[in-house]
Amino acid sequence: MSSEPEQAFIREVWGLQGVAYLVVGLRYYNRFSIMGWQSLAWDDGIMLLAVLVHTAESLMAYLVVAYWKGLANNAMTDAQRTALDPDSTEWYLRVNGSKTHVVGLLLYTTLLWLLKACWLVYYARLTDGVHNMRRVIQGGIAVVGLTYVSCLLVAFLKCVPFDHQWQINPSPGNNCMPAISTVQTIYVMIMNTLTDFYLMAIPLPVVWKSHLPWRKKLVLLVMFSGGLLEMAFGILRCVSILTLGDIDPAQSGYWSVRESFVSVTLTNMPMIYPMFRKFIEKGRSLSRSKGTSQGDSRGYKLGSLPGRVGTIGGRQKPAFSAPSDTLWDSKEHIVAGKEDRPASGDEEASLDLPKHHAVGVSFAEGSSMQGEPSRATGGDHRILVTTEYTVTEGTPRGSRSLSRTDF
């Protein structure tokens, strides 16, 4: 426990755990501060359970390194097994290290599949009412459920009887060495990769076919392609265990913790990105307002849509005045619905697809503003992009600005 590599890993474990707590905390803060506790959905409950499992997994990795010195029932010759005294400290460390590996692997698998369930619930809200998506989501539930059960079956049936997984002498065989079990390591990696591909295939085609501006579309594509990074960590974990496991049995714990942290962060990203985007947009808006405030010109906001009633001088507010929470914001719309429609924005985009309720990105039906009829007719699925212009008009007494919105 006193060696520097062990201390470095312990710092890494709890450092990553702390960052994961921060990420999840921001998720819930965003939900409560914008929508209130009524906005909590099933994926929020699943995420809370995932945090508990993640904490337990990190604790197992800590025990393997800090208490059991990274030892397990592998990395021993037959002669060493025969010579090892069952009453010795090393025997005790190896037995308990193997048991901790068994528990840690079950927690690792459970955490990854809980996060997949979070994605499925989120996508179900995101694509609610979109053609054929309900069937795709139901297929995802079946795939995630069956693959999780199969991973558990491999974990419990790869070594029979089960207690041989912490047997020291005689050698129980590779299948009964939890730190380096080839069957379990490869099988979980394959199932994890296949399910991640399936989950990414749910939102990416919808985003790709949308008519969002390319800048925003690219952000969405990158966001929902985060599973590729998780796959990379899963493959690195598999390779490191199979190649270095006999040299350093704690490799399983090292890479399980890292992959779990990446998975937790990516799963929460659609929920916390709106907060950062809001700060960025406010900074850009402030910069533009400073730039346009030079000189004697004054801008007055009129109605934000043609035909809307507006007054010069700001004496009458527009018919809607909800915050400008578009695309990524926590109003759970690409553009807010009838109740939460933004007052204005540089570039507002909405998808005229069926209405839903989801934090982050969604595809909503009816892009009409409050009090306006929907512009989607005859099943027309399209994107409505509005851009607001301010026109400054010079007069002998000064200048005034008129505001309009084009489509």
Strand line-up across the major sheet? 1-2-3
**Strand segment count:** 3
Residue fraction in strands: 5-15%
SS element count, helices: 10
Helical proportion? 40-55%
Sum up the overall morphology in one term.
elongated
**Poorly predicted ranges (pLDDT <50, ≥5 residues)?**
295-384, 395-407
Could you state the order of secondary-structure elements as H and E?
A: HHHHHHHHHHEEE
Structural class: mainly alpha
Oligomeric state, counting identical vs distinct chains: single chain
Give Rg in angstroms.
Answer: 27 Å
Distance between the termini: 66 Å
Largest sheet: 3 strands, antiparallel
What's the overall average pLDDT, rounded?
76
Distinctive features:
disordered C terminus; mainly alpha; three-stranded antiparallel β-sheet; 55% helix; single chain
How would you describe this structure to a colleague?
By secondary structure, the chain is mainly α. Helices cover 55% and strands 6% of the residues. The chain has ten helices and three strands, in the order ααααααααααβββ. Helix 5 (133-157) packs antiparallel against helix 6. The longest helix has 42 residues, at 251-292. The N and C termini lie far apart (66 Å). Mean pLDDT is 76; it is low at 295-384 and 395-407.
SSE layout:
Layout: H1 4-35, H2 42-66, H3 78-83, H4 89-126, H5 133-157, H6 182-200, H7 204-209, H8 214-224, H9 227-244, H10 251-292, E1 348-351, E2 383-395, E3 398-406
Antiparallel strand pairs: 1-2, 2-3
Helix pairs in contact: 1-2, 1-10, 2-4, 2-10, 4-5, 4-6, 4-10, 5-6, 6-9, 9-10
